[in-house]
Amino acid sequence: MRFNIFCIAIYLLSFSTGISQTKEIQYLSGIDNENTVTWEFWVSGGRKAGKWSTIEVPSHWEQQGFGSYNYGRDYVTYGKNFKFNDEKGLYKHKFLVPEDWQGKKVSIVFEGSMTDTEVKINGKLAGDIHQGSFYRFKYDISDKVKYGAENQIEVQVSKMSADNSVNNAERLADYWILGGIYRPVYLEATPQSHITWTAIDAKADGTFQANVYFENVAKNAEIVVDIRDQNNTSIGSSTIKVGEKDSLKNISIKTKKPLLWTAETPNLYYAHFTLKSNKKEIYKTKERFGFRTIEVRQGDGIYVNGTKVKMKGVNRHVWWPETGRSVNARLDLMDVKLIKEMNMNAVRCSHYPPDKSFLDICDSLGLYVLDELAGWQQAYATPVGKKLVREMVIRDVNHPSIFIWSNGNEGGHNKELVDEYRKYDLSDRVVMHAHHRPGNAINGIDGNHYENYSSTQKILEGPNIYMTTEFLHAQDDGGAAAGLADIWELHWQAKLGGGGFIWDFADEGIVRTDFNGIIDVNKVNAPDGVVGPHREKEGSFYAIREIFSPVHIKMKSLPADFTGTVPVENRYHHTNLSNCSFEYQLIDYKKPYDNESGFSVKHTASLTADDIKPHTKGSLVLALPTDWKNYDALSLKAVDPHGQEIYTWTWRVKSNEAITTSILAVKTSTSVELKEDSATYMLKANGISVFIDKQTGLLSDLANEYSMKLAFNNGPVLVSGDAVFKGIKAYQEGENQVVECDFDGSLDFLKWTMHPNGWLKLDYKYSLKGDYAFAGVSFSYPENYIIGAKWLGNGPYRVWKNRLQGVTLNTWESMYNDSKAGIGPWVFPEFKGYFSDISWMEFNTTQGKFLVATDQPDMYVRLFEFYGISGPKNYPDLPTGDVSFLDAIPAVGTKLAMGINNRPGVNGPSGDPTKINTPIARTLYFYFGIPKAEKENNQFEMPKENILTD
């Protein structure tokens, strides 16, 4: 929706009772990126340069078809002397000012403009040019506007700043550099005598303090503060006198046992401020806040309300592909919900303060926020830096979610600004530096970036609290959850572990209005997200969700003596598990010949946890029915006190052998034929013909009575180790026909057994000694023949050796896609990859369907060509072949592990290659078609609709 009218006045009269007055707001722009107002516009360079046109405000002019695109790291490519497109945009807009505003203080407010912004009202400068892109600024224009008449605003916005330190801090950065008025613009009117702003400090013991700032205090004035809960019930109030010369008063109230704010319990209150003169109300305002005490106990940890808290966080840019950094409250809400869905409790506002609405939502839903002054790798100069610190802190100071201020990023720290924060923050939050160089620890907190497992252990020895503000760089499908379980465990167990913030939340892809709307992530620079540009969930999203689950369950499989007791650890900081709810289900999975995927729920029951306090261990007791072992699997779902699912765990009840046996029976129509020629042995049964090469022992060809060929062949080939063919023989074994092959080297033997029902059994054994990225066998099959796959195993997302979490046992089905994390088309889950704990997989191809199964546990299936991280060479390396059946798979590293020989092991033991020292034997079953159940006897037959075709 757009505001296609001359001017819109929105009056925010929160307390419009009697004769009291409040701040009145009139928007000159729209309120967000979806609700805009049309202004006149002219740009100096790039597209549509030199011609007056119109533009939607708020917006970035690049996204409206003007100017040119720049990515901040272009200076790296072209050198420090590289000149960005220093475009200037000129805006004009006419507006009315209400006649009854005469005599009031009228200000014009910009929530954000990139970057140097000069404002004129009716041809007169509103004030000094504002420098800095991410901050609210305002001008008093009471003497420049015409009341009850038409006015004109003219704004010149320079994409690059005249202050080089602003460019260094904001523009020469690893993100898209955009221009324009991208946040709302509005007028605000107040009485001449009014409260300008407040700074609140509300402690966990119920002590409330506020610094109240005034302008033009009238005679016989007093300020009344009334604290009210969410039900509008007063829990305390106070009144103090204010002198005519006062510009600041401190007021305090002692309340009794307020509900405390934490990320787990985001309890909020309102402080109502009323300014009176001669007992008459002349101005009212209110602020939302929370009672909580934040302490940084040096040499110990970060405490919230007396409890040590470890941050499970992510870095977040303000971003939406179509509109860049111009967003709205709905998008902010979506991001907070997604972050909390990953069981995170914290977010870092990298590398600048976010929209006000984002902080409001963090307050109400519960996230610890690291609010950051811009300064990507260079800092603001002190004069402009002081102004911007003031603007940031005054706007954000009363948000209980903000637990620490960050004074810039990765060397962008002006230490002369550290003491500026406390000038405006009554609660005197700690200031830290988000850094990537040793020696930048400050106030007892080390935030060093991208340390590996070994160096993390060293830093956690002290002397500082280690809360890393960036770690596990998530370019493409690397980092993020890969290695997270290892590194998070170090932080959880260490006294000085403060947790950290994964880099980062979303791929920063911009919709290019100059290239037919393609999404551009600037190659390897910006696809760093756990989710895609439109918040498409990657595999890491769900793995993080499991790793960070505050209901911590380590049990990976049901023990042989399992009777329903599940050991659990409470990794909440403030929540007893008795306040959570739990439900278990006994389920049966759909089979290959069913026309659907998923499972059937056979039994459901709820349960409650006993008194399991934060940071303690206990058990969940499931009252299982006597026949529980007759079902395929057991699932357990945990739900938090707010009704949100925490995680669902699933364990096999029936073994892989039992699952596979249930699908192997197929109606027998003929006996097995064995034929040979000079090149091959042919095994044929139930219309299926299999050809084994006499010179290699490998599958060379396939056919059945409905089809000439199926292009699944050239296997099994060892993916690690060597195999030297020795000999081959064929013989009968009962009603089956066998072709057996002997080898020297790593492969001991292959044994092909054709059953009368058409199932082909493959037994093989290999021996390896050492460390291996992958182990198992591969076959060839053309990727362009694949339509989709259906399987019983973990899914629907792919895994890596160091990112096995976040997948669930089920019968899954997936259509083929060629999506690549970080590059697009951002269709998830990816079809291609490593998939874990597979019982069977049905391949749907242009040649028909075929089925592969195993009766042994822990088999991985690799599907086709893919990679985890793009770079000079895509990484990690793949096994040979197209489809692999594996006993070991590789780990994936991070973008920052590329420079050390792509060693994911630097991020923890789970990233090390698999150590193999004993022989491995596995059995695979193949059915080149799809068996189908007969109703009469529950046997199976080859259905005509699933025949193989050319």
UniProtKB/TrEMBL annotation:
Superkingdom as given in the UniProt entry: Bacteria
GO biological process: lactose catabolic process
Domain Glycoside hydrolase family 2 immunoglobulin-like beta-sandwich intervals: 194-292
GO CC terms in record: beta-galactosidase complex
Cofactor(s) recorded in Swiss-Prot or TrEMBL: Ca(2+)
Enzyme Commission number(s) from the entry: 3.2.1.23
Reaction(s) catalysed (UniProt annotation): Hydrolysis of terminal non-reducing beta-D-galactose residues in beta-D-galactosides
Catalytic EC class: hydrolase
InterPro entries documented for this protein: Bact_Beta-galactosidase, Beta-gal/glucu_dom_sf, Gal_mutarotase_sf_dom, Galactose-bd-like_sf, GH, GH-type_carb-bd, Glyco_hydro_2, Glyco_hydro_2_AS
Coiled coil (residue ranges): none
Domain Glycoside hydrolase family 2 catalytic: 295-514
Gene3D superfamilies: 2.70.98.10, Galactose-binding domain-like, Glycosidases, Immunoglobulins
Domain spans labelled Glycosyl hydrolases family 2 sugar binding: 51-191
Keywords for this protein: Calcium, Glycosidase, Hydrolase
GO molecular function, a single term: carbohydrate binding
Entry annotated with the keyword Calcium: yes
Subunit structure: Monomer.
PANTHER family, alphabetized: BETA-GALACTOSIDASE
Similarity comment: family membership: Belongs to the glycosyl hydrolase 2 family.
Name by which UniProt lists this protein: Beta-galactosidase
Record organism: Sphingobacterium alkalisoli
